[in-house]
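Minutes, methods subgroup
Present: GH (chair), OT, SY

1. OT presented the first of two proteins processed in the latest run. Sequence and C-alpha cells recorded below as shown on screen.
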Amino acid sequence: MSQALRRAGTVDPGALRRTMDIVKPHLGGQRWLMSGGVTALLFEVAFRVLEPWPTKYVVDAVSAQLGASVPGAPEATAGLLVACAAAVVLIVGLRALTNYLATVCFALAGSRVATKLRAAVFAHVQSLSDGYHATSKRGDLVQRLVGDVGKLQDVAVTAGLPLIANVITLLVMAVVMFVLDPRLACVVVFAAAAYWMTSRGSTTRITQASRKTRKGEGQLANIAQESLGAIGVVHAYSLHGEISKSFSGSNMKTLKDGVQAKKLAAGLERRTDVIVGVATALVLGGGGWRVVQGGMSPGDLVIFLTYLKTAMKPLRDLAKYTGRIARATASGERIADVLDVLVDIDDEPGAVPVAQVRGDVALRDVWFGYLPGEPVLRGLDVTIPAGQRVAVVGPSGAGKSTISKLLPRLIDPTEGAVCLDGKNIRGFTLESLRSHIALVPQETVLFSGTIGDNIRYGRLDATDEEVREAARKASAHEFIEEMPEGYDSYVGERGGTLSGGQRQRIAVARALLRDSPVVVLDEATTGLDPKATSAVLKAIDHLTVDRTTVAITHDAHLALGADRVLWVENGMIELDGGPMELMSEPSGRFAAWVSTQRHAKEVS
C-alpha cells in the first residue's frame, strides 16, 4: 500500500516511511491473518470483475431479441435471464463474504499491531530518564500514546484496506478494458494522469495542515492535563479565566488548521469527481458511437461503463481518504519522534544482577550538570559506610536533590563514579540495583487504587500481614484502620483524598516493605505541619534502623538525629562531620541553619 500511495502522491514519502518503520517490527506475528486478508481481498476483486458480466449477457440477449423474431427465442431468453439473475446473486453474495473476511482479518491484525505498538511506546516512555520527563509535556505524551496510535489503527482499517482493494481492482480492470477496447481504455490512463497532476500540490498542503492539527490537539491535551492536575491552585487563585483563555486560543488554532485540511481534501475530492465525470462522458460518447458503427455490442458498452465506474473508485477514494491518511502519517511522525528519543539510562553492556548488598556507598569525583557547561555538582567525593545515617543539608539549589537521583541511577554523573560496595553501579542491572534502594521522594505519588495496593508496590509478593506490619512501623496503621474500608479504601488519583502526612507515611511503609539496605530520603518532611512531621519522623526512625541512609533535608530534627551531616553548597561538600561537631564549627553555618529551621517550624 505504501508504494501505491507514494506513486499516487497522497502523502509525504518521508513521513510515510517513518510511519511504516515503527509499524513493521510488530507485523511479524500477524502474517497468517494478513495473508488470509490478502487472499480474501483477491477473491473479492475477482468477484468484482465478474459482477458486470451477467448484465452484459442480458443486455446483448434482449437487444438481439428486440432486433429479430426467432421461434422459441423468448423461452431461451427467459432461461438466460433467470441464469444471469442467479449468477448476480451468487457473485454479489460471494463478494460480500470475501469482503467481510478481508475486513475482519485486517481489523484484527490492525488492532493487534496497534496494541503492540502502544505497549512498545509506553515501555519506551517509561524507560526514559527523569531529565526527559522534566522537560516533556505529559498531556501531549498521553495524546501520542492513545490518540495517535488509535488514529493509525483506524486509518489502516477504514482507508488502507479499501485502497488496497481498489488499487488491485484498478489494475485488473484496466487490463480487461484494454482487451475489450484499447482506445476507450486509454481514458483510464488519462483520468489517472489528470488526478496525479491535480493532487500533487493539494496533498502536500493537506499533510502539513494535518500535522499542525495533531500538534495542536497535543497542546490542548497538555493544557487540560496541567490545569486539571493543579485544579486546587486554579480555584485558589481564580485562574479559570486565564486557563480557559489559553485553552480557547489553542482550540481555535486547532480548529483553523483542521478546517483548512478538510477544505483542501474537499477540493481535491470535487476535482476528482469532475475528472471521473469527464472520463465517463468520453467513454459514453465514444462507446455509443462504436456501438452504432458495430464495433462493439451494447452489452460490451454496459460492461465497459461498469468497469470504468469501478476502476475510477480508487481515484475517488484516494481523494476521499487523503485527509485521513495525512492525519495518520502525522500521527505516525509524532509516535516516531517519541521512539527516536534515546534511552540514556539503561543497562550497560555486560551489566550483571547484584544479589546481596552490604550498603557501602561512595561518590568518587562526581560531576553533573543538567545543561552543558553549567555543573550542578563539582567533584563530589564522599564515602558512606554501611548502616550510617547521613543528612545532606545546605542552601536551596546547591545540588542536594541531584545526589538523591544519582544513587538509584535516575541520572548518571557527567564525570566520576557512584559506587555500591566498592563497585561502580553502572556495572549492575538497573532492576537489581533499584531493588536494593528504597526512595522516599519529597512529592509522594500514590496510584489510583487501594491503600493496601499502594503499600504493596514496595514488594509485590508481600502478604497482607506484611503490608499491615509495614504500615504499623510507619505510623500509618491507625489512620488506615479509621478509614471506611481500611486497607481496601480507595485513595484516588495521586492520593488526593489523603493529607500530605498520610501520603508520606504510606510512602515510608512502602519503603519499609521493600526492606532495602540503602534508603534515600528527599525532603521527606517538607511542607508538613508539626504533628504530621512528628509522625513521619517516627516512621523514618523505623525505616532507617541499620540501613545506609542518605537524607536530603531541611528539617533540623532529622539532621541532628543523623550519624553524620554533609553541608553541600555550590555543588561541593564544604562541611562533613557529626551534627554536634558541626554545631561548634567555627564558621557557624550549620548552627545558624539549625536555628533558622527550628524558628521556621515554630512559626508554622
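2. SY then presented the second protein from the same run.
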Amino acid sequence: MRLAETLIWAAFLIQEVVGEYGMAHFSDEGKSKGKDYCILFNSHWARLPRDLNKASRLQIYDLTTSVLCSPSDVPEGGFPNRIPMVMRGNCTFYEKVRLAQINGAKGLLIVSKDRLTPPAGNKTQYEEIDIPVALLSYSDLLDISKTFRKERLVAMYAPKEPVLDYNIVIIFLMAVGTVAIGGYWAGSRDSKKRYMKHKRDDGAEKNDKETVDVTPIMICVFVVMCCNMLVLLYFFYDSLAIWVIGIFCVASSVGLYSCLWPFVKRLPFCKCRIPENNLPYFHKRPQIRMLLLSALCISVSITWMVFRNEDQWAWVLQDALGIAFCLYMLKTVRLTTFKACTLLLTVLFVYDVFFVFITPFITKSGESIMVEVAAGPSDSASHEKLPMVLKVPRLNFSPLALCERPFSLLGFGDILVPGLLVAYCHSFDILTQSSGIYFVACTIAYGIGLLITFVALAVMQMGQPALLYLVPCTLLTCLTVALWRRELPQFWTGSGFVPAVALAPINYTQTAAPQTEGPAAKAEQPAAGATDQSDAPPQETPPAEDDEEENRLK
C-alpha cells in the first residue's frame, strides 16, 4: 500500500550524507562511441559537470585486484592524470581517495558488490580532497570488462534529473479509473442487494453470500496479518516471493473472469452446455463460453508468470491483471457504514506511515521495510519482484534512468482501500437519491490526493506512503459533504439505507423480471436473483431453458 517510484529513504540520518546519481561514460581509446553506467557520488568531495561534453575523458587504471588502503597498493609511478578503479572494503573512503589524490589521480571509482551508498566523510576531509570519488556496481564492472578493451577512457558527469516523469500520468489515469469504475460497479450491485434483501427476496439473500461485509474485528485481524506478512517478507523475501506470485496468478485469473463474464454472457453464441457427466464442477453442465473464458483468463495469468521478467512488455499484462483483481475485490468486499470506512482507512494510514517513515530508525541498515519489500531487496538471490503493484516504465530520456528503478510503482492497496470508500459513497448516493454527489466528490478527492502524493515525491525526493495523502483527502471530503447535506448520522451508521429503499422501490423493480399473472409470477424472485448472479456460474438448468433465462435477465 505504497507509492514506490524510485524511493530514497535516508533523510533523517544523524550524519549528513549527500548522495547524487551520476554517469560514468566508458569508451575505448580512439573511439567516440561509448556506454553510460550509473555511479553514486558525494558532491562534498568534488562536483561533477552537468554535460558529458564538458567532462574530461581520462584513462582508467584498473586496480580492481586491490582495495587501495595502504601505500603498498599504489603501483610504481602512481596514477598521473588517470582515474584508478579499485574495490570497496578494508578502509574508509577518505583513506582510498587520499592515496589516489597524492599519487596524481584525477578521480576515483570504487567498485561495490553491495548496495551503492554515498561515499561519506567529515568536513575536514571534504576540504582536503578536490577530486571526485564515486561508487560503481560490480555487475557494471563485469559488463565493462566484456564490452571494452583494457585501454579504456572514462568521463564522469552528473546530468540534471527531470522533476517529473510522464509515466505518472498513465499511473494516475489507471488508478483513478479503477477506483471510479470499481466503486461505481460495486456500489450499484450493493444497492440492489440491499433493496432485495429488504424485500426478503430469497434469491438475493442467497446471492448476498458472494460479498463479504467487513466488521471492525475483521479490520483489526486484517491489519495484524498485513504487519506480520510484511515483516516475514522483509526477512524471508526469497522464500515467500514465489508464493505471492502464485497467489496473484490465481486471484487475478478469477478477477479477470469476473470482469469479462458480464460482457461474454451477452454474446449470442456458445450458449450450449457440456453433456451430462460426474466430474467435479462440470456435473453442473456449465456453458461452453464459460469454459472458453476460463481458459483465456488462466492462459493470460500463466503467460505473465512465465514472462514476468520481460521488462519491455510483461508490465502490460501485470497491469491488466492487477486492475481486474482490484475491480473484483471492490465488488466482493463491502463496507456497510462510514464508521467502518473511517476505521479501516485510519488504521491503514498509520500502518503505511509507520512502515515507510518509522522503520528506517528500527532496522540495522536504516532501510524502510515497506519500500524494501515493495521494490524488491537489492540483495535478493532470486531477484523476484512482488506483483501486487501497477507498474509503468519510465518515459523520460535522461541517462539517469539507468540509475533509478526503471519502473514507477503504485501498490494495489492505494487503489483498494480508498476504492472501498468510493463504493460505499455510490451505494449511499443511489439508495438516498442524492444525485451521485458523494461518489463524485470522493472520486475527485482521490485524484487530488494522488496528485499531492506525486508532488510530495518530486519535492522531497524520498519515499512517500500514498495513504498519507489519500486518506485525509477522501475521508475529510466525505465528512464535509455529509455535514453540508446534514446527513452525517445516516451516513455514519448507514441507517439511511432502509428508508430510502422503502421510498424508491420502482427504480429497482425495473431491473427485475417483468410482472406476469398466474404461475408465471412466481418466477419473479428467481429472475431477480439471476440478475444479481450475473457474475456467478449458472446453476444446473436444462438446456431447453437457456433462452427463457436469458430473456428474463434482459
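Chair's summary of item 2: The longest strand covers residues 20-28.
Next meeting: continue with the remaining queue.
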